[in-house]
Batch of 4 targets.
Target 1
Amino acid sequence: MFKFLQNLAPKDENQLDKSVPKKKISKKRQAYVPVYLDLPEMSLVQPSGDMSAKIREELREPDADTIAKDIVIIREWLDKQPHLPKDMDDQRLTTFLRGCKFSLEKVKQKLDMYYTMRNAIPEFFTNRDISRPELAEIMDIADMPPLPGLTPGGCRVVCLRAVDRDNMPNNVADGMKLALMIGDIRLYEEKTGVAGDVYVLDASVATPTHFAKFTPTLVKKFLVCVQEAYPVRLKEVHVINVSPLVDTIVNFVKPFLKEKIRERIHIHSNLDDLYKFVPKEMLPSEYGGNAGTIKDLNEQWRNKIRDYTQWFKDQEASKANESLRPGGARAETDLFGVDGSFRQLSID
């Protein structure tokens, strides 16, 4: 099956299938240019050419020698942290640097939280095996694939939807676990670096019964983890196929989000409105695009996660050792606040 790519006249000829004729692209045109190639299953298109240059400028990315020196500095810092693992490879460290716009202090904070979360939220970071029944169930009843292509601005788009209003996961924390597993894979596979993430949330089958399972404590833990422990640059959140329930849910989640992220949430009454932000061509066929069906994309990600099974098993022990933390262990209330301060979700 042909997978969808998006790039602007890539300069790295090695990333292209030589058997596919190259399409000539006008130098004057810098608009969105979809390209179709027969790729290995679920390859993530990486920025190249002018797009890559613009992203590097936005991220304040220095030359390769400076990046290598920054990695050495981070490794030297990690060596002095008795409570933190020393297993972070250069590619993931580079992704952290990009996500923090090459601020070494921010990278240190993110890395500390990255390993700290693995102790603080075991429900997200243990038993991360896609063959386990509870995770296989999530993949069957929810689609959450990052799309292979990129927006004209160089952002990765992630689609998320429940498949059936009558199918409920036994434990929604398993869905959050899967989302973080995909995030860990992307730490390694976003080789060149993207401008940020765009989320498209399809609320077509959302019901009060679905959302009642999302307790304030669980949502708070997940969003703290995503915002503080991962080098995510969230550019936009788009909610489609909305109902009156969506306003209630958005208002419930907003207090747990940073202000700048709250301002990036867009509610759309129709797909044409979404296309103003995300090109129609790069979306799954269910949304009028050419990227294949969302179910096929989700299955490709299931296979990719399966390929990382041993890595996830090895990572079980990769977490902060709070007994060795200088100054003493971090309390859960320091990380997530006091549970009693959360207001309860009320859905009519």
Target 2
Amino acid sequence: MFVSKIFVFTILLISVSCRYLNEDQRPYLIIEDDDSIRIFALEDEADVNEVEELHPLRVRRQAHGNINTNPDGSSNVAAKTPIARGDSNVLSAIGSVNAADGKGGFGSAGAGLAWDNINGHGATLTGSRIPGVADQLTASGKANVFHNDKHDLTASAFATRTFPDKPNFPTFDTYGGKVGYTYNDKIGATLGAAHTDLFKKTDYSAMGNLNLFKDRTSSLDLNAGWSKSVSPYLPSSRWEPSGGISFTRFF
């Protein structure tokens, strides 16, 4: 009976491969299609139609990306193309253009490598160019600290080395991190900080977001929060509000 249900379940999932495994005496079902890989926990071995998804993250298996808008009218474009993959990990080539004004100008552009794990962990190594200002090399990582069907907590950290265009200006490092919480994939909040030794400057941020609409191709979000910078070279340091509505298109 159990084998026959697995067979029926597989037929219903066109172009989908399923694998069944047992880890620590708890049965799992791995569903892999052309676009993603997902892991489910089977609460009852006798009924594979009642499954609990372990993690909402889909490790994408095809080239994909997104375009979103900024409050000033500019756009950000990001793309990711998998180049190597395993059962739980994907290595991808990534590229992005930020603050594109539609007239050939942009704030920055970069490319690099990204590693994604089925459990929500990941890391990136990217090089970027800020026209007329500097080149940057950034290493970042994230870890999914906690996840269930309603709550998700992720921590991330980064380190950036900046190579200014001015020949007499020294290279400098910026490093920081943030913690992000999401409820029901709708409401989120992040706390972050970053420090640059050369300028003795520390940036703090506290942001929130509310998803107004989301489907497989687009998302509309309301973002708001506060940020401030602290440095002996700045005349004042106070929390400044910011916010806006962003529209993201997935492709």
Target 3
Amino acid sequence: MNDSHIWKKTKFYSALERNNLELPNKAVFVGDDAFPLATYLMKPYSRHEGLEHKQKIFNYRLSRARRIVENAFGIMASRFRVYRKPISVSLDKTDSIIKATCALHNWLRTNLIYMNTPELVDGEDFSSGTIRNGSWRSIPTAGVDELMTPLSSNNYSRNAKDLRDRYADYFVGPGKVSWQDRMIA
């Protein structure tokens, strides 16, 4: 089975499709090219097309949001080896492992100053338009990268495309930030 077929068989996917997760109004998940565009899941505009300025800005802002999530998971993997490879226990035990490591992580952040260095997470230099990788990215992952294969789907609804376009318009309009043009140059 390919990843796209597996994704569509999950309870999470079904709940998203049926709008049963009680998410905040207008909430979306951020994804990369591996995921299909949907009204609940934004992905970048294809780089194979000639992108307009607003599409480049959208891709930058989406990748910026994704980096926050990657930093969170990367920090957890750098602190807890269990995340450096596929977890091969039951779903109930996996759930307990995740909750325990989150609680430990929060305790460490609160009580140990040296665990909160700025170098740990990715950073941006807005004046030069460069991105610095966080130190967590140098930790070996032992097989996790092999699990990340693209779902490659371009079958998305008109509503999902329109929503992504509205976000793109917002990011170059009322939601514009002063440094974003330098970051796509």
Target 4
Amino acid sequence: MSERLNIDAPLWDLNTFVGRFKHFLWVTDPRTCIVSEKTLDDAKILVEQYRNGLEPPGTSTEQVIYAKKLYESAFHPDSGEKQNVFGRMSFQVPGGMAITGAMLQFYRTSTAIVFWQWVNQSFNALVNYTNRNAKSPISTNQLVIAYVSATSSAMLTAVGYKAFLAKRASPFFQRYVPFAAVAAANCVNIPLMRQTEILNGVDCTDEDGNIIGQSRLAAVKGISQVVISRIIMCAPGMLVLPVIMEKIEPYPWMQRIKFLHAPIQVMGVGCFLSFMVPVACSLFPQRCSLSTSLMAKLEPEEYEKMKNNCNGKVPAKVYFNKGL
């Protein structure tokens, strides 16, 4: 091989939005979801061999890059464990398009709203758990509380908003009930699913990747950015598609294919998500930073611990994995 690749470094500059977009467009490729378990395991082995300079003779750069893609799409960056396929960010497009399309189509009855919000929040809970900061373990009781709270908040928001609009607005605005419920639930689901990070803090490192302390403030910042990203991820599909469907549904040709309305919405959401998943993941750097001067003001105890770990020389910024 002509030039050796740094297997642990990103292929693009993740300090820029364009670099992060290219990276997440690459790593969230839905096709990686249908790769066999053996192929994923082999990819992990090749990545580890290459890292140690022990790859098989004749291994090409293209093979290493593809193995790196599979490894980063299927294995957790903190623990190195293989992720549940349904919780991977690469499954956001196929999973999200099916569930969101159903939510947008079946919004007219409270029963349908409750059912699809439950399905959506069950999916979200799995995604949030899979993409958490793995260095902050969460107990079974905490998982159950987080799941029930998020699912309940989504259902209550959806049913309450529908009842509110039924008396005060046109049927068109009821199409936005699913988005209101999803946005509200994201604000509950993600923080609760990652509550141990908020309670105990996340590991913070210096510029060179050495762990020098923990910070709850870092956890709050990272989780807040994830909440914003998730809402933006689903917003275009859930806000634009209702307008399109409202305009085209009255046409005679659309009335003749009512059985295709749900598949049309699913495909429409898929088109939006194919673009919005990498965009939303790219909004904030994965390796998030936090000013230690802010820690000194808001987390003096943790700052002092960090100061002791650094022999009094605390860096201006610390870094942490915000999760996805």
